Amino acid sequence: MNFDLIIKNATLVDGRTSIDVACHKGLIVAIDRAVQGEAKEVIDAKGQLLSPPFIDPHFHLDATLSLGTPRMNISGTLLEGIALWGELKPVQTIDDIIERALRYCDLAVSMGIGAIRSHVDICGAELKGVEALLEVRKQVSHYIDLQLVAFPQDGAFRDPTAKKNLIKALDMGVDVIGGIPHFESTMQQGTDSIKFLCEIAAERGLMVDMHCDESDDPLSRHVETLAYETRRLGLEGKVTGSHLTSMHSMDNYYVSKLIALMAKAELHAIANPLINIMLQGRHDTYPKRRGQTRVPELKAAGIVVGFGSDCMMDPWYSLGKADMLDVAHMGLHVGQLSSRTDMAWCFDAVTKNSAKIMGLEGYGIEQGCKANMVLLQATDSIEAIRLRATRLAVIRDGKVIARSQPNKSELFLKGRPKHIDPATYAPIASST
Ligand code: FE2
């Protein structure tokens, strides 16, 4: 048989080795040891790790690459970031947002990201972000699956434009309903906003992804309401709580009840490790709280947990490089997910778990799946995280759309090797 592409001698995330993956007409059509047939393009993976693409389930494309406009976030807090964003919003144009978002997507695709769920702010006099990101969604559709969340940044109830704009944004084609209950004026309004937003989701058959309890306040318990409304409205499996940082500070007894309710509602959870380790605990002296939600306990309860990158060079976070392995690396450390099983799970948090949260179809390296993959300079998923491995090739619809040179350094030391490749490092056993 003739194929468009064969990747030979790959290692898969599940540990299978010496695997050939054949692609034709945008799909994986054969996967086995020694697949027979010709192909227009052949890649020798040389035993390196072939993964489905990275998935970023939580990002803000309307704010990315705006760092320093109109000024920097001095306190480093979430609240100053929101205030700063409020200053930037009226002055940026639709073209500015498109340009920055497309530029980010170029980097994202080179880093092996195949899908992004981006929140888009719908508060204010105009829906500039929505118009811009709908255009971006169209332009990147052949290399990134972009899912947009209508996000009332200033509060669905607190901001006078939010409710009307939310409906308008959904009518314009935004995919998912967002929210920010902890930022509403009162606890009651937070509760009411969840009910209101989930009811719209139920009416329209849409998914929900709320910024929920992104605070250090242990009494910020909106996720409890989110779980309740999810079940009341039959939205099980379609609702995600993003951030959930207040869970870090909650009373253990209360959390033992809460997690069971979340699991029953089939709520998904997204932690954003890079951002929350930076933003949370800012009002603490010492000890300082980490602020990441209770990832080990959520996953132990069977809740699908993903890691998102959230921000890059924007009012909330100055760093970032669209590297989901960097996100996994931070999530692993902050969550103390150090067993071999847990470290491998952190790779899932930026791949298949996040694909499940986004509801992506045809995701994975199996026959019949979409031929979307990334070849990494690592031999397993833990090594990929350790190394923040180089993306040797990024494949979309069975075609190579990005390539990077392997990471290798020259060494000029007498009596030592001439080349250093971090990917070849392995523990050295003591002689006994
Ligand atoms: Fe966010």
Overview of this protein structure:
The chain is an alpha/beta fold. It folds into 2 domains: 2-52 and 364-425, Urease, subunit C, domain 1 (Roll), CATH 2.30.40.10; 54-358, TIM Barrel (Alpha-Beta Barrel), CATH 3.20.20.140. Helices cover 33% and strands 22% of the residues. It has helices at 78-88, 94-110, 128-140, 162-172, 187-204, 222-232, 252-264, 273-279, 295-300, 324-334, 340-349, 352-358, 381-387, and strands at residues 2-12, 19-24, 27-32, 38-44, 49-51, 54-59, 113-121, 145-151, 176-177, 207-212, 239-243, 268-271, 305-307, 373-376, 391-396, 399-403, 409-410, 419-420. The strands form 3 sheets. Strands 1, 2, 3, 4, 5, 14, 15 and 16 form an 8-stranded mixed sheet that branches. An 8-stranded parallel sheet has the order 6-7-8-9-10-11-12-13, with helices on both faces. Strands 17-18 form a two-stranded antiparallel ribbon. Helix 4 links the parallel strand 8 (145-151) and strand 9 (176-177). Helix 6 packs parallel to helix 7 (252-264), helix 10 (324-334) packs across helix 11 (340-349) and helix 11 packs across helix 13 (381-387). Fe (ii) ion binds at residues 58, 60, 119, 211, 310.
Question: Which key phrases capture this entry?
Answer:
eight-stranded mixed sheet, Urease, subunit C, domain 1, 13 helices, alpha/beta, 432 residues, binds fe (ii) ion, 18 strands
CATH H-level homologous superfamily name of the largest domain: Metal-dependent hydrolases
Based on Cα principal axes, name the global outline.
globular
Q: List the ions, cofactors and other small molecules found in this model.
A: fe (ii) ion
pLDDT averaged residue by residue: 96
Helical proportion, percent range = 25-40%
Show unreliable segments: none
Number-wise, the strands total 18
Largest sheet, described in full? 8 strands, mixed
What is the architecture of the largest domain at the second tier of CATH?
Alpha-Beta Barrel
Strand content: 15-25%
Q: Treating each run of at least 4 consecutive H or I residues as one helix, how many helices?
A: 13
First and last CA, distance: 53 Å
* Structural Rg: 22 Å
Q: Structural class of the helices, strands and pairings?
A: alpha/beta
Number of domains: 2
CATH level-3 fold name of the largest domain: TIM Barrel
For this structure, what is the CATH class of the largest domain? Answer: Alpha Beta
